[in-house]
Specification:
The structure holds two protein chains of two kinds.
Chain A: H1 4-11, H2 23-62, E1 73-74, E2 81-82, H3 85-116, H4 119-132, H5 137-163, H6 180-204, H7 208-216, H8 221-250, H9 253-258, H10 277-285, H11 290-321
Antiparallel strand pairs in A: 1-2
Helix pairs in contact in A: 2-11, 3-4, 3-6, 3-8, 4-6, 5-6, 6-8, 7-8, 8-11, 10-11
Chain B: H1 2-28, E1 58-64, H2 69-82, E2 86-92, H3 95-103, E3 109-112, H4 118-124, E4 133-148, E5 156-157, H5 159-166, H6 176-181, E6 193-197, H7 202-214, E7 233-235, H8 237-247, E8 251-256, H9 257-263, E9 266-267, E10 269-270, H10 282-289, E11 293-294, E12 303-304, E13 318-326, H11 335-345, H12 348-355, H13 364-376
Parallel strand pairs in B: 1-2, 1-3, 5-10, 6-7, 6-8
Antiparallel strand pairs in B: 3-13, 4-8, 4-9, 4-13, 11-12
The chains are: A mainly alpha, B alpha/beta.
């Protein structure tokens, strides 16, 4: 008798007696299901990575050029010569331009919606910004090629004239603005909604007490934002930016439609030319032979690694900043 | 109140979705050039009686070149109307993809802008038991050089000048070389913006083959699907290049004639050395293809085009697309359909469809050999 009593307590906790409960069996099934899903995800990821690595190895073993430094992509030729230098450069530069433009604007919109706008305006505005995310990227591409590119001619001339001394904005080649700079602007518009909506959520989470305390000390609205909202939201804004960066790095159709690709590295961002991983895959996939596709897969693997690196770095930054923000107050 | 506002927002969201959805659909339809400039579709030329269905049955899959997409679509429509119960499905992707599918044995025939390469023929022997892949020239067409120069209606160029323009050697429209070819035309000093394809393309290969053959001194690059010359700007697909030419003043670019006629883009007349410059039309392209020699052996009818022809009214910047099939060892279940369908496309009625739609028929002499090869398919 004495030995059965503890077992009874274990098997029949009071919670499981409530109406509608499935008892211990439900727990077990659910645990198994979620464990299974977790493992399945890992298996899928591992097999994708294995497949990509396998195909990439085939391509890399026959590459006559240097995969890291060759400025050319001739993977379907015999012998194949291809390298990712230009693609890596273009991907990183266009994403940096996009981040530089998008993040301040997104934070501004988020602050306006969460702290300045009258309530009647805030909700619709948030909704409109989120709607930008629902527009398919090919639409951005068409809009970019037919509207944005001709419109940017004036801005490019202006930048060339007044900021040409920076080297970066020196436009040395004639031609319409099918450049990395234009791509950056387009990507900035495309990542605005994700950065804005996550930042807005974070700014709304700022403890009321922090803000009220600041107000009680006589802070103006801007000072409230500066001393309580921004420090509290910093890690959130960083993770939001990284989400946006993820989209910018991998954007395909919009870039392929707007950019005039070339296999040259140039810091003159107003000149037409450059290329990104995803754009190159979209452009070359159709006519590539089997080997050419393996080469494209190899370049895709590099993009995959780049995205992993960026996300990892973001995690590190957030983990380090957490102690100083209000997140654990 | 709050509920109402929410549902209104939802409605507007739905509206936005519908609008963007419609845009996507229009975008997909943009490469449909079967319509004439006046917006009407011409009636198909073939009466059902011309098409022999023979033992054709079931489903025939095919894939390949998008350059012949519009022609094949019309053929398929006429053919399926005449032979109920047969389904021909041509997936217009690209020449490269078509040949890969053919050599994997998943399609009955492939469409390709360029003839099979030796290694591709080797590979095809695995699929065609006892035979090999052969090229049957089926659709011809002019590649137009579209231009957009304010105030200029007509422009004559020769191969060397075109090569120098795309090679970034000639930079302004009022260059002496261009002026000399266009007496009496006032050319502005606008900078030339030359557009080429950013994706690998059979059209690029044909243009560079032409430049390499007709202006070897001015065009040092190898003919290839990938654009090799420096300078200029790139756009994706024929539609992309045509859109840029239409939009940018001082531009020139190359694409199939149908893209020029459907968008009202002016095209360059070629100065071939004939008495008068030749315009890009289906008839003129046919005349140039007539000067081609057959480079293949046996049933293989791969053509060697004569890009330097000086024949009157022959437009040498042409593209010939092939149907790639097995000469022997075709799959038993698709062979009757392949034979009967290609029989129709190579017939007079089938070739007539081409001329009505901005393509060029294959000249009679070569066409007769195509028919013979089709009848021998096994």
């Amino acid at each position: 008798m004495a030995s059965t009593t503890p077992t009874q307590i274990d098997t029949a906790p009071p919670v499981s007696r409530s109406k509608g409960s499935t008892g211990r069996a439900g727990d077990k099934i659910f645990a198994a299901l979620s464990k299974g899903s977790g493992i399945l995800l890992l298996v899928i990821m591992a097999s994708i990575a294995a497949f990509l690595t396998y195909r990439a190895t085939i391509a890399l073993s026959k590459n006559e050029g240097n995969f890291l430094t060759t400025f050319d992509w001739n993977a379907s030729a015999n012998p194949p010569v291809f390298g990712i230098a230009v693609l890596l450069f273009g991907t990183v530069v266009s994403s940096i331009i996009a981040m530089v433009i998008a993040v301040p604007i997104a934070v501004g919109i988020a602050l306006f919606i969460s702290h300045y706008a009258p309530r009647k305006l805030a909700a619709p505005l948030a909704y409109v910004v989120d709607l930008l995310a629902a527009v398919p990227s090919i639409i951005y591409g068409i809009w970019g090629a037919l509207f944005l590119v001709p419109q940017l001619a004036g801005l490019n001339l202006w930048l060339d004239e007044y900021l040409g001394w920076t080297y970066v904005f020196d436009k040395t080649q004639i031609g319409v603005a099918r450049s990395l700079f234009t791509v950056g602007i387009l990507l900035a518009i495309m990542i605005l909604p994700i950065v804005t909506s996550v930042s807005r959520e974070v700014f709304l989470q700022v403890p009321r007490m922090n803000e009220e305390a600041a107000l009680a000390l006589g802070a103006t609205r801007w000072e409230v934002i500066r001393i309580s909202v921004l420090p509290f939201g910093r890690s959130g804004v960083i993770s939001a930016s990284m989400l946006g960066l993820g989209r910018a790095l991998g954007e395909t159709m919009a870039v392929a439609t707007v950019l005039s690709p070339s296999f040259l590295i140039s810091f003159h961002v107003l000149n037409p030319g450059g290329g990104t991983f995803a754009q190159n895959i979209a452009a070359k996939f159709d006519e590539a032979n089997e080997f050419g596709r393996d080469a494209l897969i190899a370049s895709g693997l590099v993009l995959f690694l780049l995205t992993l690196l960026v996300n990892g770095a973001a995690r590190l930054i957030i983990a380090r900043r957490k102690d100083f923000s209000g997140a654990n107050a | 109140m709050k509920l109402q506002r929410k549902s209104m927002l939802r409605a507007s969201a739905l509206g936005a979705l519908v609008v963007s959805g419609a845009l996507v659909l229009t975008a997909c339809g943009s490469d449909d050039n079967t319509k004439n400039t006046d917006g009407t579709t011409k009636p198909s030329a073939a009466a059902a009686g011309d098409i022999k269905c023979d033992d054709a049955k079931g489903k025939l899959l095919a894939s390949g070149s998008s350059a012949q997409k519009n022609a094949v679509e019309l053929w398929v429509k006429n053919y399926m109307a005449a032979c109920p119960g047969v389904e021909v499905n041509y997936k217009s992707s690209s020449s490269g993809e078509g040949i890969v599918a053919f050599n994997q044995g998943t399609v009955g025939f492939a469409g390709s802008d360029s003839a099979l390469k030796p290694e591709q023929v080797e590979e095809s022997k695995k699929i065609c038991t006892g035979g090999q892949g052969i090229n049957l020239p089926m659709v011809g067409g002019p590649v137009a050089l579209g231009f957009n120069i304010a105030g200029v209606e007509k422009l004559n160029l020769d191969a060397a000048t075109i090569a120098n323009i795309f090679n970034d050697k000639i930079k302004k429209w009022d260059d002496e070389a261009i002026k000399k070819l266009n007496p009496g035309v006032t050319l502005p000093s606008t900078a030339i913006q030359a557009f080429h394809r950013s994706d690998d393309s059979g059209t690029t290969e044909n243009v560079t083959k032409y430049l390499k053959a007709a202006a070897p001194d001015a065009w040092p690059h190898e003919a290839a699907k990938k654009w090799a010359a420096p300078g200029g700007q790139a756009a994706s697909g024929s539609a992309g290049v045509a859109a840029q030419v239409k939009q940018v003043d001082g531009s020139i670019g190359y694409f199939e004639l149908s893209f020029a006629s459907s968008q009202g883009i002016k095209t360059v007349d070629l100065n071939t050395g004939a008495a008068a410059p030749v315009a890009a039309t289906g008839e003129n392209a046919s005349k140039a293809i007539a000067a081609a020699k057959i480079a293949g052996t046996g049933s293989d009818l791969a053509l060697k085009l004569d890009y330097t022809t000086k024949a009157e009214g022959a437009y040498p910047l042409v593209l010939v697309t092939y149907e790639v099939v097995c000469d022997k060892g075709n799959k038993a279940e698709t062979l009757p359909t392949v034979k009967s369908f290609l029989n129709y496309t190579a017939s007079d009625a089938g070739q007539k469809v081409l001329l009505e739609n901005g393509y060029a028929p294959i000249p009679a002499e070569i066409n007769a050999k195509v028919r013979e090869a089709v009848s021998k398919l096994g």
